[in-house]
Amino acid sequence: MADAVEITLVHHGEQHTLSFAHDATISDLSSRVARDLSIPPANQKFLVASRLGLQKPPFKAPDMPITDLVSKKITLMGSTSAQVAALNASISAALGPRRAGPVKAATPARSRDHRRMQDEAQYTFHTLRPLPHLPNPDRSLRFLERLRDDAGIKAAMRTHNFSVPLLTEMDPAMHTTQDSRTLGLNRNKGEVIELRLRTDAYDGYRDYKTIRNTLCHELAHNVWGPHDRNFWDLCKKIEREVARDDWKSGGRSVGDVEYYEPGERDLHDDGGWTGGDFVLGSGSASVEGNAGGAAPMGSLSRRDIIARAAEERLKRTKQAERDADESGSAT
User: Fold this and answer.
1) How much of the chain is helix, strand and coil, in % rounded to 5?
2) 131 and 66 both lie in a single domain
3) Which residues contact 62 (CB under 8 A, 6 or more apart)?
4) What local confidence, expressed as pLDDT, does residue 134 receive?
5) Checking DSSP bridges between strand 53-55 and strand 285-286, what pairing results, if any?
6) What are the CB-based long-range contacts (under 8 Å, 24+) for 60-63?
7) Which domain holds residue 211?
8) Which parts of the sequence belong to the WLM domain (predicted)?
9) Which residues make Cβ contacts (< 8 Å) with residue 141, sequence separation at least 6?
10) Does one domain contain both 124 and 65?
11) Domain contains 236
12) pLDDT score recorded for residue 26
């Protein structure tokens, strides 16, 4: 062939010289490699030691003259059809008859939702505080942790951008009268939220979903103070959101704690608590007032309120004993 052009390729360390017509193209080179070296186009890669760099089918310039490759060092990379078949056979044998077939691409791991993690760190209860002077404060802490980590509560906190510095438990003696029991308080639109976790006698814990609904009620006071139409619309909305997003199905027992079912005397609160102060770590509080008027206990300290409640219980006990004695004497 008078006008023959010779191209030398190096494949796996072995040189191969191929002859082409002067008007041949790089596409003709690919066809000859497939025919003579049994390397299909899908497996071919030509590394040209020049500005041409890496070339592989389908080529960006399939009509590139073969003469552009003359005197260039060309490394051919790619497996022959026989090598590919042998590899697939070995894979099939290793996997066994039930798993034979093409290997599926690995599914990429799902990336972590960093935005959600940031929101959950910001919109949450930043401090949980059981009352250390009451029995078993560790149980109360677990109860508060369960409320904080409740899937429905976490979703509602993110949705409404609620960030509460302190979630603590309420001493039953503080807000118990002969007519009612207060279940929760919200101070200064979410600065402090108190929840009545325990029974009146401190010997058990109340129903989880009742306390969770109380928490929804108190969270609504972060936006609205009085119990008006705006408040109740938001409160019911938060309750529905919490129930909808509670994919972990809350309401189970915490440890071996027995729960108290709510009665007719229970009420959530008298509106958003706007007075008084609560010092972190002090374990004491004073209540000057609330949205519904003056607080029943005035501005007494927490210790004074507990002492007064204990005195009242002692008086009622003694009165009951006297009434029983008088009834026995009359009989």
Assistant:
1) 40, 20, 45
2) no
3) 25, 26, 27
4) 84
5) unpaired
6) 61/26, 62/25, 62/26, 62/27, 63/25, 63/26, 63/27
7) 118-301
8) 116-315
9) 128, 130
10) no
11) yes
12) 92
Do residues 133 and 35 both lie within one domain?
no
Same structural domain for residues 136 and 267?
yes
Contact of 144 with 167, CB cutoff 8 Å? yes
State the Cα–Cα distance between residues 216 and 194, nearest whole angstrom.
12
CA distance 251 to 302: 30
The CATH number of residue 28's host domain is 3.10.20.90
Q: Beta-carbon neighbour count of residue 96 at 10 Å?
A: 8
CA-nearest of 201, 205, 202, 239 to 220 is: 239
Q: Residue 103 has what pLDDT?
A: 60
> What are the residue ranges in the chain where pLDDT is below 50?
250-261, 275-302, 331
Answer for the pair 1, 21: CB distance below 8 angstroms, yes or no. Answer: yes
- Which of 74, 79, 90, 14 is CA-nearest to residue 40? 79
CA distance 168 to 166: 6
Together in a domain, 77 and 145: no
Extract the tokens encoding 324.
């029983």
Residue 224 CA to residue 243 CA, distance in Å, equals 21
What positions carry a catalytic annotation? 218
Q: What is the total count of domains within the chain?
A: 2
Instruction: Based on the fold, state whether residues 253 and 170 are members of the same structural domain.
Output: yes
Least Cα distance to 170 among 307, 296, 305, 317 occurs for: 305
pTM, whole model, 2 decimals? 0.47
